[in-house]
Design brief:
mainly alpha, Large ribosomal subunit protein bL34, Ribosomal_bL34
């Protein structure tokens, strides 16, 4: 079976767009806030 050409690693995903990374910056917190407002089940990766 062939694999997808674009594949990220889970470590990279966490480091770039995990919850704790989002909470570090002002804009990241804004992202979390807007996703909460919208009613997302998953706020971050």
């Amino acid at each position: 079976m062939t694999r997808q050409t674009l594949e990220g690693t889970s470590r990279k995903r966490k480091r770039v767009s995990g919850f704790r990374v989002r909470m570090r910056s002002h804009t990241g917190r804004r992202v979390i806030r807007s996703r909460r407002k919208r009613g997302r089940a998953r706020l971050a990766v």
